[in-house]
Amino acid sequence: MTKRAKVILIILISVCVTGLTIAFPPIPQDPAYHNFADTRGLAGIPNFGDVTSNLFFMLFGFMGMVAVLMSRDANTVFTMKGETIPWGLFFVGAFMVGIGSGYYHLEPNNHTLVWDRLPMTIAFMSFFSLAVMERFNEKAGLFLLPVFLVVGAGSVFYWDYTESLGNGDLRAYALVQFMPMLLLPLMFWMLPARYSGMKYLGYVLFWYLLAKILEYYDAVIFHLTGELVSGHTLKHVAAALAVYMMVVYVTKRRPKHDYADHAAGSRQKSNITIA
Predict the structure, then answer these.
(1) How much is the pLDDT for 18?
(2) Do the Cβ atoms of 179 and 17 come closer than 8 Å?
(3) Low-confidence stretches of the chain (pLDDT beneath 70)
(4) 8-state DSSP, 32
(5) How far apart are CA 241 and CA 230, in angstroms?
(6) 225 DSSP assignment
């Protein structure tokens, strides 16, 4: 199967999934979503574990921003023009998740949940744009970045608006969160890699999936640990470790030979033109 055929197949899958999601009836936010297992406060901070565990997002998000800034001129890290934009936005989004999620867990409700979900869409959509750049076409990835960001933010505001009308609808947000999780493994499997270090992206997926499991078994883990720590608190740590794996990936990866030669040739041509 040619690369073009693979891209068309991926697009068709995304269209089908979108169509199926639209065919579903509206999905309101379950009020029980805000009922977390560990509601203990400490040092004047309510829901201490779920609030403070978000510091890991801020730490690793900040590390990622520093890594991008320090490596933005490194030819062994970035080979595409504008590549640092979605990378920077991804880590900014991760950092903001720490702030937004911490704010939400101080007083969990639908209104504060908006500020938890909004930065998540920045991280999700930036990562999706990166995958398009690296696996398909760099210009397409950059072009789609603002589109993805608007769609991501719009899905949150749409859900919030429908909740205010008394008929909440999470379908768009669910699509924004889970569509990349469906398409990214397909893209990584079917399309050639521009960089080495694929194992680190595997670790990203592992920690993210573990985070979803820990989130689901929030109360069970809280009781199994003798009420030491809840599943949701550990979910924050696991998801933050997925961000850390992205930091490791962007600092340790190297361009594949074909791409490295192409980038070197482009830089040499640029230098001759400037001279």
Answers:
(1) 87
(2) yes
(3) 72-76, 257-275
(4) G
(5) 17
(6) T
How many other CB atoms sit within 10 Å of the CB of residue 264? 13
The pLDDT, as a whole number, for residue 271 is 40
Residue 22 falls inside a structural domain: no
Which residue, 218, 221, 247, 209, is CA-closest to 105? 218
What's the farthest any 2 CA atoms get from each other in the chain?
69
| CA dist., res. 23 & res. 154, Å (int) | 19
Check which CATH number belongs to the domain holding 151 and give it: 1.20.1070.10
Residue of 122, 138, 104, 118 lying closest to 34 (CA atoms): 104
Cα–Cα distance between 74 and 53 in angstroms, integer?
A: 33
* Nearest residue to 48 via CA among 233, 174, 265, 263: 233
Q: What is the pLDDT of residue 74?
A: 60
Number of domains in the chain: 1
Angstrom distance (rounded) from CA 150 to CA 39: 34
* Residue 230 included in any domain: yes
pTM of this prediction? Answer: 0.87
Structural domain of residue 135, as residue ranges?
Answer: 48-274
Distance set, CA 136 to CA 10, 129, 151 (Å): 11, 10, 20
Q: Which of 126, 106, 113, 15 is nearest to 64 (CA)?
A: 126
In a domain, 43, yes or no: no
For 102, other C-beta atoms within 10 Å of its C-beta total 22
- Per the CB < 8 A criterion, the answer to whether 52 and 238 are in contact is no
pLDDT at 135: 85
Residue 6 lies in a domain: no
